[in-house]
Amino acid sequence: MKRSFIFIAIAIILSGCESLDKSECEAGQWYDIGYNDAINGKGAWRIRNHTKACASYKITPDSEQYNAGHRQGTIAFCTPQRAFNRGKYNEGQHGNCPVSQFPHMGPAYNEGYQIYREKAALEQQIKEIEHDMTYIVDDIEALVAENEKSQELIDQGVKSLATATPEQRNIIYTQEHLLNRTIKNNQKEIDRLYLEKRPYEADIQRLRSEINLLNSTPMPLHLNR
Questions:
Q1: Which residues, other chains included, contact 189 with Cβ-Cβ below 8 Å and sequence gap of 6+?
Q2: Hey, is 28 helix, strand or coil?
Q3: pTM for the complete prediction?
Q4: Which of these, 156, 143, 154, lies nearest to 191 by C-alpha position?
Q5: Sign of the CA dihedral 18, 24, 28, 33?
Q6: For residues 118 and 214, is the Cβ–Cβ distance under 8 A?
Q7: I want to staple 73 with a disulfide (CB 3.0 to 4.6 A). Which of 22, 39, 57, 65 is the partner?
Q8: What is the pLDDT of residues 65-98, one digit of tens each?
Q9: Residue 2: pLDDT above 50?
Q10: Own/partner pairs for 104-108, CB < 8 Å, 24+ apart?
């Protein structure tokens, strides 16, 4: 059973390496295949996968045509806009677009990366505010839980009044009075804590708006020349 599972896994891996089917190999549109590989961010090494796939049909790719298409596709793929976007989301320089070959990529990437750094700083501020706000939220939750428990005790006391003795009723009424006072005092503190929390929430909302604004920042026009 274990051996058959291994064979299935190997078959899946090998099938993933077969990049083209028979009709694509027979069509022989190697320039287009090279171009499409490049425009999808795949390196020229991809032809090795195609060679292996087409070998099953005794067809050999035209590497000259493939490489010519791949060069043109790389030019279309390696644009300043793509470099800017990759920098803005900290995705790193694309391996198929070396700065030595595409010097316009470096400045565009750096411009985008500067935006990423500004966003990272804002996100760090949000984390710090959320950390500070945690203590307020914890206090609110604790007071709410205490009030819920107090209300349960009051409800239990009310249910037991029908069968309680006069002395027991006095104890129940006294306990109810104390619990209601606790609930009232806790609610005042909860309201105060919610007011204390508002400035933190406003700061977080403001910082997130700044991040959204940075995300929508277009690439400067001079980088596209």
A1: 139, 143
A2: coil
A3: 0.70
A4: 143
A5: negative
A6: yes
A7: 39
A8: 999 999 999 999 999 999 999 999 998 887 788 8
A9: no
A10: 104/80, 104/223, 105/78, 105/80, 107/80, 107/223, 108/80, 108/81, 108/83, 108/84, 108/219, 108/223
